[in-house]
Amino acid sequence: MNRSMQANNNKHKACVFSLVAVLTLSIFSSASVAGPREQAKRIHDRLSGTPPTEAVLNDMATQISGGDAFGAAMKILSPTTAGALESEYRNSARNFYSVTLKNMVTPWTNEAQTVFAPLNDYTATVIGMVRDEVPFNQLLSANILYKGATGVVSAEYSRDNNTHYEQLEDQNIDLSDPGNLVAVTQDAWTGLPPNATAGVMTTRAAARAFFIDGTNRAMFRFTVLNHFCNDLEQIKDNSRAPDRVRQDVSRSPGGDSRIYMNACVACHAGMDPLAQAYAYYEWQYNNDPDTGRLIYTDGSVQPKNLINADTFKYGFVITDDRWDNYWREGPNSLLGWDTGLPASGNGAKSMGRELANSDIFASCQVKKVYRTVCFREPTVSELNATTSSFQAGYNLKRVFAQAAADCRGN
Question: Which residue among 205, 224, 230, 379 has its CA within the 20 to 30 Å range from the CA of 29?
Fold first, then answer.
């Protein structure tokens, strides 16, 4: 082939490649552009998990065309805002609260962190708080419990079993309906005094999972894991004073004190002064833990907090439920503690308030919602903006609507 023919052939190939590139770019560009109907369907699918009716789809698309994707999402979460289409949106809301939200919350309620667990009072309380727009910074401190309305199912709430909630789920009771799932006070149904109630931490499900046996540190660890989006390993700090580390922690594990100084103390120095808030709680059962109940011995430290005293007899001995937040200083001061709250107190209620008014608690809730709705982490700008908005009133329902609007497609 002479040089002239080779040049023409190369030009022909270049033209073909350019044409293919243009067509490919055009195809992908067209595919990535979602109109109002496509955006409406994605918002609906992500929140409800089911296809919208034609009327709902058209209504949402019209609202999105007007620049209000957030408002379109809110109609799914609050059907009463949908006007004449309220009944159409009811089924969408039902699926959101009973499936999407329930599946997000259920792993918080058990040590295995599995979604395959029945409805319980922890999950139902979160569902009710989101539905009714109860400020979510009360999650770890409020004297609140959500249960089925009397007569909705045959089994009433019990301190000794989960039958009431299992019936609500098995009978597909609509949890989006305020007439079915109602707010009551914990002290009226659990036997706890009002000052001992601490939001979801003192629900039956949480107690069964995290107050059983052990030393009650599990309740603190899983509360941090679920609501700070970090395990203790990520927020450990060995620069804190170890004066509140209990007797059951070896100062020379395996005969090597360096392990304690470089690893153990980093968690225990901050955790033990906070977990002391649980000193009066115990999951009491005979043979079957599932038929046990949460008990609270006001003023009397549960023996579980004093076990293995000979491991290091000079360690700290719990005598009451006073807690102190050593993480207000040092690296974990960056977790954003509320300076308007005291850094110490007595009992799980005030300690839960300390945790739930931190910046990291707020940002964690936002992250969990974006993972649920968008199947991804929020961008930095999304996280900052939505967290700031969330902290203005701690309305988690609006976070769901904002996340759905942010990942509706374009």
Answer: 379
**Is residue 20 over pLDDT 70?**
no
Tokens in use for 340?
Answer: 């308007």
SS3 (DSSP) at 397: helix
pLDDT at 136 over 80: yes
Return phi, psi of residue 295, to 5°: -125, 155
In whole angstroms, give the CA distance from residue 11 to residue 17.
10
With CA atoms as reference, report the closest residue to 110 among 274, 267, 289, 352.
289
What gap in Å lies between CA 190 and CA 218, rounded to an integer?
21
SS3 55: helix
Amino acid letter, 54: E
User: Do 248 and 315 touch, CB atoms closer than 8 A?
Assistant: yes
Backbone angles phi, psi at 274, to 5 degrees: -85, -45
Model-level pTM? 0.91
CA distance 365 to 268: 25
DSSP 236-271: --TTS--TT-BTTS-SSGGG-HHHIIIIIHHHHHHH
Q: How far apart are CA 344 and CA 355, in angstroms?
A: 11
The pLDDT > 90 percentage for the chain reads 91
Task: Tell me the CA distances in angstroms from 364 to 57, 224, 335, 351, one per residue in order.
Answer: 31, 10, 11, 18
What amino acid is encoded at 112 in this protein?
Answer: A
